[in-house]
Amino acid sequence: MASDPGAAFAKLAKEYSDLGPIVAKAKQVQKMRAEITHLGQLASDPDPDVRAMAGDELVELKRTLPDVERELSILMLPKDSADAGSAFLEVRAGTGGDEAALFAADLLDMYRRYAQLQGWKFEMLSESPSDLGGYKEVICSVNGNGVFAKLKYESGVHRVQRVPATEAQGRIHTSAATVAVMPEAEDVDIEINESDLRIDVYRASGAGGQHVNKTESAVRITHIPTGVVVAMQEEKSQHKNKAKAMKILKARIYDAERERKDKERAADRKEQVGSGDRSERIRTYNYPQGRCTDHRINLTLYELDQVMQGLSLGKIIDALINDDQAKRLATLDESK
Asked: Per-residue b/e over 113-126, b at no fewer than 16 CB within 10 Å?
């Protein structure tokens, strides 16, 4: 099959755009080093005023150069091609019954508020509500620039410790919810053959089994080679449900393939905070103590309310990004 010239051009344009900041930072480093050499020569000038001025500027440049060089090193770290794009967010109640479902709803609200603060578009695609107002499972799309780069660190098991609203004795319970963040797959990322799909249509039903409508608008798509299944019934249109289900299916298959390659790529992958291990307990939200602890970097914030409102979640994500960058820079230094 012939390659798409438009897709090839778009890929080259993106690569060119990605190189821009690196080139600009490299020129800045080059200019600073040249100025340091020049000021070093002026430091022996017979004019004491020139020597003093050169000395002051030299001290300042030598102080700031390492920071700029580190910024360049970070820009030159291998990029995750999915970082710049949008993502799908899945939150599922884990151990803890109704309380776990309520916690899943709290996490969903946290991510929705964080997305709003980032200027991202947050859309609910599929939901399975619990009896008490929580969620057994919910799938959302988060669209914007750099969504996956930040949200990918949220994949894993989130644990909550608090007194449930349903607990008359006032005892602290521990519940959990699992978060999965998957990059939205573009057509250039993954190709799915129609012959590998089984598509079933059926009547959408709501709570209690009553029919939402009398047409077969719900869609279930099975990718036969991998066994990945996605069902969608939120829309009244079968066409819209199929389109949404296909997007999620592509994302799941693409994500599974990325995870497989990640595991093959490096033995030290487990040490990196962005590994996306869904079975790993990554964070604890302790309500009695008002604290939120991320276990991967041993970071504790005593501002749980602000975290749950999305306001302080960025502090945790930024710390995770910085830790990941530091580890990768250290790995590069060791290999030199």
From this structure: bbbeebebebeebb
Q: Are 39 and 62 in contact (CB under 8 A)?
A: no
H or E element that contains 294: strand 291-294
Query: Distance between CA 5 and CA 300 in Å, rounded?
Result: 50
Q: Name the E strands within 172-287.
A: 173-183, 197-202, 218-223, 228-232, 281-286
In the structure, how many helices (H) and strands (E) does the chain have? 7, 11
Tell me the sheet residues that pair with 181.
89
Encoded amino acid at 237, one letter: S
Quote the CA–CA distance of 148 and 232 in Å, as a whole number: 23
The amino acid at residue 273 is: V
**CA 152 remoteness from chain centre:** 2
Measure the CA–CA gap between 319 and 326, rounded to whole angstroms: 10
Please tell me the distance from the alpha carbon of residue 316 to that of residue 230, in angstroms, as a whole number: 31
Reading phi first (left if > 0) and then psi (alpha if -120 to 50, else beta), residue 85 is in beta
Q: Is 95 helix (H, G, I), strand (E, B) or coil?
A: coil
User: By C-alpha distance, which of 197, 287, 300, 283 is closest to 242?
Assistant: 197
Q: What angle do CA 174, 103, 154 make, to 5 degrees?
A: 95
List Cβ neighbours of 172 (8 Å cut-off, separation of 6 or more).
161, 162, 163, 288
For the stretch 223-245, pLDDT in tens is: 988 888 888 888 888 888 888 88
Query: What is the b/e burial string over 173-208, where b = at least 16 CB atoms within 10 angstroms of the residue's CB?
Result: eebbbbbbbbbbbeeebeebeeeeeeeeeeebeeee
Residues pairing with 180 in the sheet: 90
249/247 Cα distance (integer angstroms): 5
Residue 279 pLDDT class (50, 70, 90 cuts): low
Residue 197 main-chain phi, psi, to 5 deg:
-110, 140
Helix, coil or strand: residue 291: strand
Q: How many CB atoms lie within 10 A of CB 268?
A: 11
Q: Report helix, strand or coil for 206.
A: coil
Average pLDDT over the chain reads 83
Instruction: Confirm if 154 and 144 have CB atoms less than 8 A apart.
Output: no
